[in-house]
Amino acid sequence: MTYVERHSRGGKxxxxxxxxxxxxxxxxxxxxxxxxxxxxxxxxxxxxxIRREGTADCYEIPDTQMTxxxxxxxxxxxxxxFMTGEEAEAKPGKxxxxxxxxxxxxxxxxxxxxxxxxxxxxxxxxxxxxxxSRWYCQPIAE
Length: 142
Prior knowledge:
Helix content: 10-25%
Shape: globular
Strand content: 25-35%
Strand order of the largest sheet: 3-7-6-5-4-8
Largest sheet: 6 strands, antiparallel
């Protein structure tokens, strides 16, 4: 979830909590893949299941990636920018590992815009860019 400004007809604006990824549903895998597909087949809403490239298997997101995704999408951090995975990958930057703060242990790239540094991470097809001190990051070999 993230906060956005919404304007009413009266001209007043207010901050509203909205989903970052508005067109995806993440499902916890508790049953077999066949049972899940059968359940999805009964759904009356049209949906698209992301599958592994070249196979019929559903794409599974590891717990570590989902934990990172939830941490990066925390609405408590101001200035977080969300973009498509392609946009995030297109931004130049050096590969880094965050060594201090709430994102310690995460790897991504450090991107500089003017005199500000941003940590960019691409997860589940969504790019997340947030402002971070460059001193919190350690360069890693490519």
